[in-house]
Amino acid sequence: MEVLAKPTPFTFDPSTTALLVIDMQRDFLLPGGFGESLGNDVSQLRRTIAPLSALLTAWRGAGLPVIHTREGHLPDLSDCPPAKLRRGPDIGQQGQFGRILIRGEYGHDIIDELAPAPDEAVVDKPGKGAFYATELSDILDKLRVESLIVTGVTTEVCVHTTVREANDRGYECLVLADCVGSYFPSFHQAGLEMIAAQGGIFGWVADSPSVIAALATPGEIK
Ligand code: C5J
């Protein structure tokens, strides 16, 4: 299967590819939530919801694996490095949607529009990267995944960190520009350019309609 992408067309075998949906959590995306309380414009992230929802429908329809991630910590914060807490003192404090970035709280969970299906893995991560201190590598090994379609928020933080981690572990990554978002449009733009620069130093960048079109091409899914 091939999709138009930068810097070159991206080729993948659906039988060894997973869709990664990073941190589409209420704390980051809901008006009134943690992200907005920091002065951020959540509409910059919320524009990803409709394209990601359409992609999920097509990806699930093709019977392909989806893995969701959530950034957050244990209620006692024992998995939160003191340095992270020093620079993010709101973590664990009471917010509009429960304790901020704490597992089990309403705000920590994934937005209703993109709720994981019962058979889909949800990886809880204490860091920005989805590989650090998680079971993600094991899940991908079991599924024999070689390529990742990467979506979610935010482009320059958790998406970028995860793509860099994946790249070092030998995965081919396609990042979908319309399905990733940042509170800062210039960081989003630069983040995408960095991925595809220098012949695809971290991977490829495309838009979700080209993946949906490829999935709909007769004979492409076996
Ligand atoms: C941030 C994330 N931005 N999911 N988290 O702190 O990108």
Any overview of this molecule?
It is a single chain. The chain has 222 residues and is α/β, with parallel strands linked by helices. The protein has a single domain, classed as Isochorismatase-like (Rossmann fold). Helices cover 35% and strands 20% of the residues. It has nine helices and ten strands. The strands form three sheets. It has a six-stranded parallel beta sheet with strand order 7-4-3-8-9-10, with helices on both faces. A two-stranded antiparallel ribbon has the order 1-2. The longest helix has 16 residues, at 185-200. The N and C termini lie close together (11 Å). The model has no long low-confidence stretch (mean pLDDT 97).
Order of helix and strand elements from N to C terminus: EEEHHHHEHEEEHEHEHEH
Spatial extent as radius of gyration:
17 Å
Give the distinct bound molecules.
Answer: dicarbonimidic diamide
Portion in beta strands: 15-25%
| Average residue pLDDT | 97
Strands in their spatial order, largest beta sheet: 7-4-3-8-9-10
Shape, per Cα inertia axes: globular
Indicate how many domains the architecture comprises: 1
How far apart the termini lie comes to 11 Å
User: What count of helical segments does DSSP give?
Assistant: 9
**Class derived from helix and strand content:** alpha/beta
The CATH topology, please?
Answer: Rossmann fold
Q: CATH top level?
A: Alpha Beta
Please supply descriptive tags for the structure shown above.
two-stranded antiparallel ribbon; 6-stranded parallel beta sheet; binds dicarbonimidic diamide; 222 residues; Rossmann fold; globular; alpha/beta
